[in-house]
Amino acid sequence: MTETETWRPVVGYEGLYEVSDRGSVRSHSSWKRGELLKPKSNRRGYQRVSLWRDGQRRYRKVHHLVLHAFVGPRPEGHQAAHWNGCKTDNRLNNLRWASAADNVADTIRLGRHVSARKVACLRGHAYSPDNTYTDSRGWRQCRECQRDRARARDRRRRAQAEVAA
Predict the structure, then answer these.
(1) Helices (H) and strands (E) in the chain, counts
(2) Are the C-beta atoms of residues 28 and 19 closer than 8 Å to each other?
(3) What are the E-state strand segments in the chain?
(4) Which of 5, 6, 80, 135 is most buried when burial is the number of CB atoms within 10 A of its CB?
(5) CA-based angle 25:30:32, to the nearest 5?
(6) Residue whose C-alpha is closest to residue 107's, from 127, 132, 88, 82
(7) What are the residue boundaries of the HNH nuclease domain, all occurrences included (predicted)?
(8) Measured between alpha carbons, how far is 93 from 83 in angstroms, rounded to an integer?
(9) For residues 68 and 80, what is the distance between their CA atoms, to the nearest angstrom?
(10) Structure confidence by residue, pLDDT tens digits, 73-124
(11) β 25-27/40-41 pair status
(12) Could you tell me where the beta strands, DSSP code E, fall in 44-120?
């Protein structure tokens, strides 16, 4: 059974354009009513469409249009994120507002981050599930290196305490 496509007005272009939960954009003007706009990819691979209002053309990313219409305005400090990492998959169920760290974590999860191919940290400790965690910036960290830093910090504190005593 197929679900019906849901359409909502494009925020800021109400009465002129509509966007669907499947990532389609159509004109709602009297002379091109219902005509689907053909998205083009920008230099970074994201799909965008050309929207006209008051005689001015503006390019808008399709995933932003979908999120604004169906989820709401972008929260402060957030950006659009694709769950599956595919920049051209603008279906609502593949999109969400996320922090920059969440977006980086997605690239790591999908194996697309430049460091995701690394199998060991700079000191040679293996990036195994038990020895790896993701920090607040979304960067992969080595637990063994973290333990080494904590031990060194404790040694310095003990040495300073002995000198003070």
Answers:
(1) 3, 10
(2) no
(3) 7-9, 17-20, 25-27, 40-41, 47-53, 56-61, 78-82, 95-99, 132-134, 140-142
(4) 80
(5) 45
(6) 82
(7) 60-104
(8) 8
(9) 10
(10) 999 999 999 999 899 999 999 999 999 888 888 887 887 777 677 888 889 9
(11) unpaired
(12) 47-53, 56-61, 78-82, 95-99
pTM for this entry: 0.69
User: Could you tell me the two tokens for 122?
Assistant: 């700079």
CA angle 40, 45, 50 (to 5 degrees): 30
Beta-bridge partner residues of 48: 40, 61
Query: What is the rounded CA–CA span in Å between residue 81 and residue 119?
Result: 26
Could you tell me how many residues make up the chain?
Answer: 165
Half-sphere exposure of 74 (CA within 13 A, CB side): 15
